[in-house]
Amino acid sequence: MKKITTIILAACLAAPLIAQDNAAEQTTKSNINQTDSALFLRLGLGYGSVVYGSSNNNSTSELGGGPSFSGDAAVLWNWKLVAAELSFVGANISNTEVTVNGVTTKNEGSGFLWFLDPKIGVKLFSKPGDMGHTFLYGGLRVWGFSRSLTSTETSGVKTTYSPEDKTSGSAVGWIAGVRDLSTYKLGSGDWSLLFQWGVFVDSAPLKEVTENDSKVTLQDPSGLGLGYEVGLGAANENSGLAIYLNYKVDVAVTLFDSPTKLFGTGIGHYYLTVAKQLDL
Asked: Which of 23, 113, 193, 212 has the fewest CB neighbours in a 10 Å radius?
């Protein structure tokens, strides 16, 4: 397993370098990356799983998961190597299932989870005629959630909440990572094979949550967030248009000193993403 992981990691890290060799062999008839400044826009629509809930001191899980839709949008601007990006991910939280000691509880409700990340960094490995690049960044992680629970059902016994049981919260912290997009020319046409990957780490702990209009302060909170993404598709490097399928995981966890020791939420979603590069 370690060998497989090492091979995959090495392939991801080598991708931009291999793509640069490929780009050097291409003609420069493309209008992409012919100026010092550009915008790289992307928009993705996704579906997958969302996780939401808490876990207590004796490791008995109260975390639950369920199906979810999401959107992922970003704008990356660069001037030569200097780059800045604003990205946003929003996902709904619908019905979830929670299993504790072999007993499953079904939760019915609605909610929303979001991540907003303003980042600065460097855009590397850009070449005339090639959409490929590597964005190395650091910045702010701003995220939040809201959840309205209408009913729960355990062992056939259903409990309805009227009014709804509401919980919400938000936090600000830091994020750092790398995101790469590499292209590989397919024959003599305008289309190229596209490979995309990224990894990041963040820390943005919740300091308080609101439960039914009452604020609850979390004691000594600390945060840990992890995420990755990988995708495959095609790019037309004459027009600067790309379309690809990618899978993205983004998880935010807060640890704190209380009878409940952990709060976590996040997504694991498949996206259909469209990207467009505009030289300025």
From this structure: 212
pLDDT tens readout for residues 216-247: 888 888 999 999 999 999 999 888 999 999 99
The type of residue at 205 is P
User: What percentage of residues in the chain have a pLDDT greater than 70?
Assistant: 85
Q: 244-250, long-range: CB within 8 Å, 24+ apart, which pairs? A: 244/194, 244/196, 244/273, 244/275, 245/270, 245/271, 245/272, 245/273, 246/44, 246/196, 246/270, 246/271, 246/273, 247/48, 247/271, 248/46, 248/72, 248/89, 250/89, 250/115, 250/225
What structural domains and CATH numbers belong to the chain?
A: 2-279 (2.40.128.90)
Q: What is the number of other CB atoms lying within 10 angstroms of the CB of residue 11?
A: 12
Written as one string, the DSSP assignment of 146-215 is EEEEEEEEETTEEEEEEEEEEEEEEEEEEEEEEEEEEEEE-TTSSEEEEEEEEEEEEE----EEEETTEE
Question: How does residue 134 score in pLDDT terms, banded at 50, 70 and 90?
Answer: very high
